[in-house]
User: Fold these one by one.
Assistant:
Number 1:
Amino acid sequence: MQVRSILRILGLLVAVFSVALLPPVVLAWIYGDGGAAAFFLAFLLSLFIGFILWFPNRDRRADLKTREGFIIVVMFWVVLGTVGAIPFWMPDNFSLSFTDSMFESFSALTTTGATVLTGIDELPHAYRFYRQLLQWLGGMGIIVLAVAILPLLGIGGMQLYRAETPGPMKDNKMTPRIADTAKHLWYIYFGITLACTLAYWAAGMDLFNAVGHAFSTVAIGGFSTHDASIGYYDSWIINLICVIFLLIAGANFALHFAAFRGKSLRNYLHDPELRALLAIQLVLILICVATLLVYRWYDGVGQAVTHGMFQAVSIAITAGFTTEDYSAWPVFLPVMLIFASFIGGSAGSTGGGLKVIRVLLLYRQGVRELNRLVHPKGVFSVKYGQRALPDRVIQAVWGFFAAYALVFVFIMLGFIATGLDDYSAFGATVATLNNLGPGLGSVAANFQDVSSAGKWLAILSMLFGRLEVFTLLVLFTPTFWRG
Amino acid sequence: MQVRSILRILGLLVAVFSVALLPPVVLAWIYGDGGAAAFFLAFLLSLFIGFILWFPNRDRRADLKTREGFIIVVMFWVVLGTVGAIPFWMPDNFSLSFTDSMFESFSALTTTGATVLTGIDELPHAYRFYRQLLQWLGGMGIIVLAVAILPLLGIGGMQLYRAETPGPMKDNKMTPRIADTAKHLWYIYFGITLACTLAYWAAGMDLFNAVGHAFSTVAIGGFSTHDASIGYYDSWIINLICVIFLLIAGANFALHFAAFRGKSLRNYLHDPELRALLAIQLVLILICVATLLVYRWYDGVGQAVTHGMFQAVSIAITAGFTTEDYSAWPVFLPVMLIFASFIGGSAGSTGGGLKVIRVLLLYRQGVRELNRLVHPKGVFSVKYGQRALPDRVIQAVWGFFAAYALVFVFIMLGFIATGLDDYSAFGATVATLNNLGPGLGSVAANFQDVSSAGKWLAILSMLFGRLEVFTLLVLFTPTFWRG
Ligand SMILES: [K+]
Ligand SMILES: [K+]
């Protein structure tokens, strides 16, 4: 294990990250409502931490092996989550306990969007902005890791996106060098965020809120600068903008990358995962709107359409924004949407959950078995696009699913042990492991009333979700540390 | 499709089944508390139904193909479930609505053990006995189907038990002729039931109740002749007898078969599934007892041990007997046991759930993926016993798991649509799909308050569980009916 090379990389990351603590300082100065000291001290502290990690190891530029790749990916989230918590924890006119600071920071960075705060509208602008910024940076991290790094580690079928897959990857082979890929992903991510900001701004948000909400929309994070979330604006046009950008951010960024490099939109049309994602969202929207209309839940068709569409996409794609308390919706709508969050966004998007492509492959494996039962001698393959997938990839997806289910059960039992009732424990597990944000029962709105142990378990669960379970799980195996 | 050959077989089945309606007539005569007319009329009616199905087709002895095998297996449960409902429905001094009769009959026959009845202690002896008998017959049907027929149909990895598996099958190849296999399974089933009856009798039950409870114990059915279930006896020795026979009935009957033929107990020791089953039960017992002791839930260690042991095994192995209201137990015990019922008994046992062997294979596939992540070039196989399993079998297990999960979600949403709250809907789905019996929330004790639509959905769910999901699901595919 090349510990010093890993420390060097983490040091650089923390140093770069510390720059993100400066815009809140500027905002605190502009608005004069506090937080300047906290953020400036946090900036100095994290710059210092980055320096002492990097400086002694600055010459350690070794080639890293797969094993070190896992450590770096896990440490990426753990170290940045911890450093990101500093401003919340710094004593100022606003500050949180250590546990709450960590919870808020990890929830933001993993784009989960669960919170321990209320009265967000009254917080200093520096903090309101910083929470959104953390989500945006987290989203950027997810994209780079998921598109450029996790496939190299072979996590849960993601290698599908390396070379085996047809469509975008085959026609426009992704630039092999990670740095170059990351740079282009950054342009795309920035471009989509800019477009989203302008759209929100044009639709009536002020610039501060437009930027803030664009950050958490593109990151599928779900944090808002208002307690009432997107519902604060009570505007169907803002709802629609949010839904459109959630769908864009819920697509695989490798697709955006291919479109960007190839200057063609054809790839989008032929991607099976994107088509499945859009089909799922459409069906959920139709079910929600139809049910709300049948139950006459809102006065007029317009309300049912705008809220039905918004909440269906926001929950199913694991954003967690709200315009309405969907958990009070009639019959099976709340549970259906919560279940849909297990599907989540595409692989290589900022969404959470199992990811559409995996669910698609699981489904097709089920269909294959049915066909095999009827025709025991027949040869059936699981297809993705035009191509039969190698069994190796499908096995990886199944292994992923088994691990996800197992981790889910243990975390849910853990939440019950920390004092949550069964229903809330289920909600808390879905909210954190799927990186969704809002839960059910006592954690439907926030995690304020959860015990400290429960909050730490939530942090672990968010990490499991964001690290595609396996990346974290592998560190607990003896094989990993042997030899 | 050889419809007339199928009708001939079903006719024979119904005719044979009708004999089961005579013992209750005798009991009604002995105890003189009613039901004689209902059961005798039901006997005549089902004998007649059997005859008109069989007689016109009595010469149709064709070789049946796989496809007809599926139809027969599904119809086995549907037809016997329906015929079995007749006595409940017959107007007498006790009778149920059509829906309730069907519910009670299917719940009994599929060894689910959910009920719409209360005041069971006051029912005529004929009915009290008949419910137990239906479970016992259902258990027998499960064993024959699971050990001798489903493997031929290739359902969800059960082909593992045909020829591919080491251990009992290899050393003592199962008699290829189904009829012969069935005969020997019957001896074994009868022998275990007899032993269980004598044990209960010796422990203090009267003969009527000893037979009745032996029926539902060996069938892992969970029905009792008392509202208070096994708790009625308040006897640690009866609890222990029940647990021991549940574990015997929760083992694969192919193991008992091999031991019976080979006169050796060695097979038991080397069977990976049985070892896993016992290990799981032991861990659950320890967790339950320890938690009950820590929380000082009962006065004295004895109570905690007997109830902890009893409820852990009864719920986890999907029997559903109760001595205590375990759903009120502290922290995560209720949810843990409910989750454990997803594992259930062994394949080829009378237990429900996913079955131990499948969960074992899913777990090992998860471990294989972890190993592959650390050593991407390594070759890892999923082992069962000493032998690496062919990928084909593992894929079948995964397909099964995907179908199970999908069916679970749809049935749970269906229960919500029929008016159950989210928590009870989850409980009702677990109770029926896992063939467990008792649920949570409003269906914790019985299904009396469920709407008619909900009861029919419960029947469908029990069938899905008992038919290993795929057997029923395959009938809904276009491929099945084509050509
Ligand atoms: K989220
Ligand atoms: K049962």
Number 2:
Amino acid sequence: MTSRLVVIGGDAAGMSAASQARKRRPASDLEIVAFERGQHVSYSACGIPYLVAGDVTDPDALVARHPAEFLKLDIDVRLSSEVVAIDLDRRSVVFRSAAGSGASARESVLGFDQLVIATGGVPTRPDVPGSLSVGIHGVQTLEDGIRLLGYLDRHQPRRAVVVGGGYIGLEMAEAMLRHGLDVTLVDAAEQPMRTLDPDMGGLIADALRAEGVTLRLGERLEGFASTAGRVTAVHTSGGEIPADLVILGLGSRPNSDLARAAGIAVGETGGVRTDRRMRTADEGVWAAGDCVETLHLVSLRPVAIALGTHANKQGRAAGINIGGGYATFPGVVGTAVSKLCGTEVARTGLSTAEAAAAGFAAYSVTTESTTRAGYYPGARKIKTKIIAERTTGRLLGAQIVGEEGAAKRIDALAVALWHGMTVEEMTSLDLSYAPPFAPVWDPVLIAARKAAEALGSFS
Amino acid sequence: MTSRLVVIGGDAAGMSAASQARKRRPASDLEIVAFERGQHVSYSACGIPYLVAGDVTDPDALVARHPAEFLKLDIDVRLSSEVVAIDLDRRSVVFRSAAGSGASARESVLGFDQLVIATGGVPTRPDVPGSLSVGIHGVQTLEDGIRLLGYLDRHQPRRAVVVGGGYIGLEMAEAMLRHGLDVTLVDAAEQPMRTLDPDMGGLIADALRAEGVTLRLGERLEGFASTAGRVTAVHTSGGEIPADLVILGLGSRPNSDLARAAGIAVGETGGVRTDRRMRTADEGVWAAGDCVETLHLVSLRPVAIALGTHANKQGRAAGINIGGGYATFPGVVGTAVSKLCGTEVARTGLSTAEAAAAGFAAYSVTTESTTRAGYYPGARKIKTKIIAERTTGRLLGAQIVGEEGAAKRIDALAVALWHGMTVEEMTSLDLSYAPPFAPVWDPVLIAARKAAEALGSFS
């Protein structure tokens, strides 16, 4: 008998799960229905800042696969269809499909044998006066990006305020610079990029200033002023900042409300709990993507990290398992990368503060080097920080800030971290060397050497 | 009482050893004398092709440290001084210092307590008629590079033949193109870059042809024709190739003759045998750099790989140990990287042929991807090949050929290889992702996925 897989959420995690399940089970064996409340499925949310910046000119370029392609695979994608409840007893979902007119919407019920919850994240909206004014934009969905481009085009704003100095904030600050706007970045912390140590975050602050961004650090957002419903200024604990356009880059939390309401276990991070096969505690119910929490393999604590690469891997694992195979997502080490104009930034593992919070006694070293042999044309600056455990020298985290060719070096560190290498062991790593690609001691090895020397392991 | 360390060979390995020993033991405790038969110490031999190409305009830029800097550290560097014998019984070396006139040279004896053999490599000179003709150049030493530049300048050659299609051959072919010469590359094998599988080597052949290099593959070198002592043609099994300039890029063998003559153990590769602390079997005698053999951590066989990064690490380990510390060089996984104009190439681990020779039953997969998200400007092609063990899926090797941003990805694979990861485990690796840096599945992960799927581990 044919059974039915229902997928809630049609982006990376949900559609990866659907595709992988379909690969292993034909339509005669498994019916697949995917509900997506928006207008697009399977697109790169991480690409939105580059769409807004103009690096990508066609929103369609961000779409990995269109609904028609899924239909060809016998995956029934339902756009503008929002699941509003999960009924575990009846093994069904209640969903609402937008009718022709936005106002009225039908509610219907569909049973499932297997369920994938891939509801994504909820962007943090500040609970301050005026936050619903026109001209305040989020950048979570492709619709958000298209809407922002339309706003830029129609209103020709002059002054943009970006609220939040994390990855999205950085990328959106660059996008606004590219549109020729005056850009102010507001963050409640004393540094942008709070996932970095303060010294490394300070380098990003310097880079932002050098690109002409006004920084308002250590300022709490208090509200928005508006005229005729349109934003005119941002109020912070430091004063008023005139604004024709505000971009919210405050991150997101796991969208686990639906799961929680259904009685599915949600962890301390607010993300749905799963095992390494992406199973929730409820038989036949899976979860993947920004709505779940996962294990941080260094702190060994649950974390909720919204990132397309995790969503894809988790969705794929869920789909393979639903398809009768075996695949796992063991966790993350906290790798991330971004850039601001010519400045690249990357991190993996725990920051110094995170290491302390996780109970590690840690120390750190920072080294400066070049991306190529110093004498080779195009050698660029790279600063590498390593955080390691006192007494053992075990690598706990690493951060890189530098110019072109710097950031991707974080991958070698991420793999070393995955294996719990000590900095001393790392000094022997057989990393690639030729003058156009690295100094004879790669910046990663130089950092490991200095960390090993600081530990005194060789003295 | 002061003891004496004698270092034979003043390049990367020897001078790293000297510096590290000095760091830990002052001159009052350890006298250090380093003999170098050439005119320069501590330079980047790997930089010579880029000096010849014109990327580096001053030979001095390749010199990491000058003799005067070592003198300041109380390291007595003796240039133009060649050690001609090691006497283990008397614990002394016999050396010859060039006198003012090249012809006569004094022979002297100097005792040692500790000895570092860092005699480097002997470039392979083909044993064919005419190989001593003027216009046939090696590119092993800085002197070689300077001499070649002088030849180019004085003789304005039009046709260059590069003999040998390995890393140096590739780099010198590019250097000659940059000088505007007609370039022919000769190799006895049917592909350039024999350390790659034939299909990946074929991509390099394509790239060479696209850059205008004439390839003469599968042709054995038979001799050189000359007029008035100057080379005019190269004879191969395939015919005659007119040449105004010949560059030999045939690799090198460990320069272990001095060690062997002294009765110090030399392995089957021709390299001096050491343990992981770089000790030879003889008490107080160390060896490091291109003259030693080391353990290949995948094949578990001894290999002799001439590479500056290994030489530096080995010399450093020897010096730390001589200084009373503890440091090791556990071996290599065979990582290498190079480029030909815009084409980057990298490899690590075993090739398919090497895996078979080492007794592995291996399979391989090749994947095509891009260096950035496909929609992001500047996304370039990258082809990634993975070689893995049948039945276990253990990674055995990897090869990359691609455009800008491709090759350095080999490092993540090299670290994975170092830890004996399976391709299935690798699919979970937390590699950095953002559209300017990678597709949502990094090319490394795509290759791992395909390799895992080929193994059938998920079906």
